[in-house]
Amino acid sequence: MSSITQYLNLYRDNRADVHSHSVELLNESRDDAYAFLQDKSLPDKGEEGFEKTSIEDMFSPDFGVNICRLNIPVDVAASFKCDVPNISTLLGVVVNDMFVPTATLLKNCPEGVTMMSLSRAAKEQPEFVGRYLGKISPKDNVNVALNTLLLQDGVFIHIGRGVKLEKPLQIVNIFNSPAPMMSVRRVVIVAEEGSSANILFCDHTQTRDIDYLSSEVFEVSLAENSHISICGIEESSNHTRRYQQVFVRQESGSNLYINSSSLQNGTTRNDFTIDIVGEHCETYLTGIAIADGEGTVDNNSNVNHLAPHSHSNQLFKYLVDGKAQGAFEGGIYVAQTAPFTEGYQSNSNLLASTTARMHTKPQLLIYNDEVKCSHGASTGQLDENALFYMQQRGIPKDVARTLLMQAFMSEVIDTIPVEGVKDRMRHLVEKRLSGDFMLCGECGSCK
Fold first, then answer.
1. Could you give the dihedral angle defined by the CA atoms of residues 99, 81, 288 and 294, in that order, rounded to the nearest 10 degrees?
2. Which terminus of the chain has fewer CB atoms gathered within 10 Å of its CB, N or C?
């Protein structure tokens, strides 16, 4: 029996409650998703594109879903007590799957910028939100359909035409529950013509011995000449499973930067599908993964060049230790309609133990001769000669290892366009690699 069956039964038995505790726009597509999922199953390990990660296994435990929208207490301040550089942001918090605006956001959000609960936005502006919700993510994707079936909230971000936001927007996702829970979220980001913004997403788990599952779908729409950077930092727990799917549509002249960094986790799968439909676009997709214990980090990317004169660059680096495993499958697709495309992809990996495993599969699919494209992957261990050289100069071996690992990750960190976020990433990676990750004595995120 597919793991989807338990969620279909949950919806069937509680349909009235699901609909009554949600809004009309979110309810419109539920029954269609329910019908579509009847004979479907989630991807299993070994299937095309899922060689090392089973989404079926991730969803199979009996996770609770907060259908009746119960308020679960959470100590929001605990997520900010750790020793990291301060970043001045416009902040919103998502507790499991419920959006909570902060006083700073409500007071200081500038004109032309909206960051609010998806449920509230769908209720207050159904026609506008309806233009984007469910329009970029494919309806025939099984996990998207499951997300649609159970979705009750998320985040809606709108950057108005010509608005150039100086202060970053920040969403802090906090998992906290007395029992195993599945959080279903949808993030809709709309950047209108000529707008620009930097957006930071941080994932934290407060109750670290409870099993959590996050089903999160991003739909990102970039109008002409808009500039958006999205940085995601995962600092969860080994009991947290996350399946995140990011769908992006870029119009002419738009510029997109995405960084996805998994610093502490249980099982993480990130899918990126970026459709470049306009000319003269810039696309940067980068990521860091640090996995140890028995953790898994799996990134899958598909950058689709559908129009001419655009440039994309993918750069992912993994550090895998213990019995952990990493996976990266990246694709560049160049359509016949996309001459003068430049597309580059690189994946480099360090295995810090003999039991760590890494799967990498970069791919090119090109249907036009007027292009510049390349891809490459490498997997190895720390340079023993460099370690020896540093030890000969009085640097202890553990410190030398940490310094080499930091240097390895720095190429990705240096691409982050926001200096405050870049500094924060350097600090968090240093803490993580030194085995002193987020030591504050209070927030529960210690090693």
1. -90
2. N
How many helices (H) and strands (E) are present in the chain, helices listed first? 12, 19
What are the angstrom distances between the C-alpha of 72 and each of 66, 75, 100?
10, 10, 12
CA 435 from centre of chain: 24
Residue count (the chain) = 447
Residue 416 falls inside a structural domain: no
Q: Whole-angstrom Cα distance, residue 300 to residue 55?
A: 13
Q: Is the pLDDT of residue 384 over 90?
A: no
Q: What percent of the chain has pLDDT over 90?
A: 78
pLDDT, residue 156, reads 98
Contacts of 68 (CB under 8 A, 6+ apart): 17, 21
Closest C-alpha to 168, from 206, 214, 202: 202
20: pLDDT confidence band, cut at 50, 70 and 90?
very high
38 alpha carbon, distance to own chain's centre: 28
The residue type found at 169 is L
User: Domain total for the chain?
Assistant: 1
Q: What is the CA radius of gyration of the chain?
A: 21
Please check whether residue 214 lies inside any domain of the structure: yes
Where in the sequence is the domain holding 143, given as residue range(s)? 4-386
Report whether 283 contacts 311 (CB < 8 A).
yes
Q: What is the pLDDT of residues 354-366, one digit of tens each?
A: 999 999 999 999 9
Q: Cβ-count burial of 376 within 10 angstroms (0-12 exposed, 13-18 middle, 19+ buried)?
A: exposed
Q: What is the pLDDT of residues 155-201, one digit of tens each?
A: 999 999 999 999 999 999 999 888 999 999 999 999 999 999 999 99
Q: In Å, how far are 17, 46, 68, 245 from 215, measured between CA atoms?
A: 20, 21, 18, 8
- Beta-carbon count within 10 A of 14 CB: 15
Is the distance from CB of 55 to CB of 44 less than 8 angstroms? yes
Beta-strand relationship, 98-101 and 371-380: unpaired
In a domain, 318, yes or no: yes
Query: What is the Cα–Cα distance from 399 to 302, expressed in whole angstroms?
Result: 37
Identify which of 252, 372, 260 has the alpha carbon closest to the alpha carbon of residue 312.
372
Does a structural domain hold residue 399?
A: no
